[in-house]
Write a structure and sequence with these properties.
The chain is α/β, with parallel strands linked by helices. The protein has two domains: 3-229, Orthogonal Bundle (Endonuclease III, domain 1); 235-340, Nucleoside Triphosphate Pyrophosphohydrolase. The chain is built from 16 helices and nine strands. The chain has helices spanning 3-8, 12-26, 31-34, 38-48, 53-66, 70-75, 78-85, 92-104, 114-117, 125-136, 145-155, 164-178, 184-197, 216-220, 278-282, 329-340; strands at residues 160-161, 228-229, 235-243, 245-246, 249-254, 266-267, 286-294, 297-305, 314-318. Strands 4, 5, 6 and 9 form a four-stranded antiparallel beta sheet that branches. A hairpin with a 2-residue loop joins strand 7 (286-294) and strand 8. Helix 2 packs across helix 13 (184-197), helix 10 crosses helix 13 (184-197) and helix 11 crosses helix 12. The longest helix is centred in the N-terminal third of the chain and has 15 residues, at 12-26. The chain starts with a helix and ends in a 35-residue tail after the last helix.
């Protein structure tokens, strides 16, 4: 423990009081705070993993309207759960939340300890501490990126951490030591609120901070220098995708049910999935070029109007029925943009229109002599 951390502990009472008073006056009126319940706490914590509050709010509202409790969630088909989650990303969270609800409804009552919650799907140390402290009053400190940032600045801890996980582990004892005996849930939420609205990653608002008097980082004159995390090495990837519309149906790839990240989700097929090389697909007209980041990857994706050489493993989905399937969030936007700008290929009438496969059936190439032109 650094000298600054050691000097903070004797003043923890004042720190707790100042933080609590600020939170009660300044906390955002978030829906899971206005109407607290175990279920609303669990759903919000799953949604807020790696996702900002402003993004979560409309999803949370729709979720509660459709699946208001654990029983409703447990009974819902997975496809319906994923559809509600569409656009939030990291779909394993939705699947784990679904499995968690199914496990809970089989229990005589929900667990109350963090250790018991960690046995449930998708619940790690932070989520277990958040759920049990907020909903059950358990004395468990939460340590996420916001809390790491606050504690590293309070103590001016100049340790260079390999990543946020190692930093969270290092600051966990201090977070626990600062936790008050009463209302641990409010204290945890106050810490997270402070990190999200005042103790910002860039340009911290020290003048508005209720615990600035306790902060060694502010006294140092450069609070934004903390925490110190080793820079992440990014990797650039290039993906070439195929756009093909025939007889009002769009060709898509549906992830395997066993896939880790995109199970049962639809996306525009890559060149390889359409039986083409990247060069073959890229030689066709470019409809869109998109850039995005996923964890350490910086990805550039180009979408080309091209005729696939193979339909194996692909599905035809009627354009009019795209709203009923689950597309990954970026692909939903990209498909909508291309359709809205009328960039989809067109063709003249074919001699014989092939039967359009259903959205759940494997795509089939039109029979020889009856192929419709790509449009």
């Amino acid at each position: 423990m650094t000298p600054a951390a050691a000097s903070l502990l004797p003043r923890r009472g004042g720190f707790q009081a100042a933080l609590r008073a600020w939170y009660r006056a300044q906390a955002r009126p978030l829906p899971w705070r206005r109407e607290p319940s175990l279920y609303r706490t669990v759903v919000s914590e799953f949604m807020l993993q790696q996702t900002q509050v402003k993004t979560v709010l409309p999803y949370f509202a729709r979720w509660m309207e459709t699946l208001p409790d654990f029983a409703a969630l447990a009974a819902a088909p997975e496809a319906a759960v994923l559809k509600l989650w569409e656009g939030l990303g990291y779909y394993s969270r939705a699947r784990n939340l679904h499995r968690l609800a199914q496990a809970l409804v089989r229990l005589p009552e929900p667990p109350r300890s963090a250790a018991a919650w960690r046995e449930l799907p998708g619940v790690g140390p932070y989520t277990a501490a958040a759920i049990t402290s907020i909903a059950c009053g358990a004395p468990e400190a939460c340590v996420d990126g916001n809390v790491v940032r606050i504690l590293s600045r309070l103590t001016a801890d100049a340790t260079l951490f390999n990543d946020s996980a190692s930093a969270a582990k290092a600051f966990a004892p201090l977070a626990q030591a600062l936790l008050p005996a009463g209302e641990p849930g409010d204290h945890n939420q106050a810490m997270m609120e402070l990190g999200a609205t005042v103790c910002l990653r860039q340009s911290p608002r020290c003048g508005a901070c209720p615990v600035a008097a306790f902060c060694a980082g502010r006294s140092s004159g450069d609070p934004a220098a903390y925490p110190r995390l080793a820079p992440k090495e990014s990797e650039r990837l290039s993906v070439v995708r195929v756009w093909c519309v025939r007889d009002g149906a769009l060709l898509l790839h549906r992830g395997s049910a066993a896939a880790r990240r995109l199970a049962d989700l639809h996306e525009l097929p890559t060149a390889a999935q359409a039986g083409l090389t990247d060069a073959q697909a890229a030689a066709s007209p470019l409809l869109a070029r998109k850039r995005r980041s996923i964890t350490r990857y910086r990805i550039e994706e180009s979408i080309h109007r091209a005729a696939p050489a193979s339909h194996a493993g692909l599905v035809w989905v009627p354009v009019a029925g795209l709203a009923q399937i689950t597309l990954s969030g970026p692909h939903r936007r990209w498909v909508g943009e291309i359709l809205a700008t009328a960039a989809a290929p067109r063709s003249g009438p074919s001699r014989t229109s092939p039967r359009r496969p259903s959205s759940s059936a494997p795509a089939r190439a039109p029979k020889s002599g009856a192929a419709a032109k790509t449009r």
